[in-house]
Design the sequence.
């Protein structure tokens, strides 16, 4: 592939997603090997050109010859368009740019709750700007997606538990957001949006893990006990991930216990009321 010469892209070293795709640029030859650096180790000669807070929010691509800097989706389009000219027309299409800018911002401003890192001990290290509208959008998306998948999964358990109404899983999942929001406000109010983002990432990931079993159900006639066991296995993984993330956020065991208690209470209500 054609390499973009004399350019440097600055990624977030604490973001596995950022590290993965930027290293991919170097490995595939889209950028030179020395053209990929974490912004935490930004070369001194690059600093005068960079809006450092914006570079934290949106990945920066610096032309080391002219000093020109592009940010976010425009940086990615510049690298990809140089290596794959066939897409240049698409990357210049204003409606496509607008849509992809929103998608990029949705992921970028939520990346710390999608794949969390330990809280930085050094308070001087710049962190992504928090934007409430993107966090609310993320909570809404993950709530809807997880609830939709759970609604489709529950009929596989009909021999063991009532299927319930069409919107039951939406109400239960939404209720857990409210329940945990109240709990975290009592425990660590300043981390409520960080916690809720992490919690809904776990819920969404758990729902995605149910998809293989749902696909299997289209081809094999397995007993409800199998799907119940599969669900419990996924729930166990979710518990472990919740516990791990609480350790990273230094929130202790209480949020995990509250999360489990809510699910147990509603399971008992479904089974016996």
Sequence:
């Amino acid at each position: 592939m054609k390499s973009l010469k004399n350019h440097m892209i600055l990624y977030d070293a604490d973001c596995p997603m950022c590290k993965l795709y930027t290293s991919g640029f170097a490995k595939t030859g889209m950028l030179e090997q020395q053209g990929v650096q974490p912004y935490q180790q930004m070369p001194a000669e690059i600093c005068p050109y960079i809006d450092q807070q914006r570079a934290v929010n949106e990945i920066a691509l610096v032309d080391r010859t002219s000093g020109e800097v592009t940010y976010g989706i425009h940086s990615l389009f510049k690298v990809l368009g140089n290596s794959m000219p066939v897409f240049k027309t698409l990357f210049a299409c204003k409606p496509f740019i607008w849509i992809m800018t929103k998608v990029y911002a949705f992921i970028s401003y939520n990346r710390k709750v999608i794949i969390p890192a330990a809280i930085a001990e050094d308070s001087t290290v710049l962190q992504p700007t928090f934007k409430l509208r993107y966090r609310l959008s993320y909570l809404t998306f993950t709530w809807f997606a997880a609830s939709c998948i759970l609604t489709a999964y529950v009929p596989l358990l009909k021999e063991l538990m009532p299927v319930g109404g069409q919107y039951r899983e939406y109400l239960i999942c939404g209720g857990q957001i409210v329940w945990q929001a109240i709990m975290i406000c009592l425990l660590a109010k300043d981390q409520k949006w960080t916690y809720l983002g992490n919690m809904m990432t776990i819920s969404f990931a758990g729902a995605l893990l149910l998809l293989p079993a749902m696909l299997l159900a289209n081809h094999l006639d397995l007993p409800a006990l199998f799907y119940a066991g599969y669900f419990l296995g996924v729930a166990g993984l979710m518990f472990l991930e919740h516990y791990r993330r609480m350790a990273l956020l230094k929130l202790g065991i209480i949020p995990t216990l509250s999360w489990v208690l809510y699910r147990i209470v509603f399971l008992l209500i479904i089974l016996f009321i």
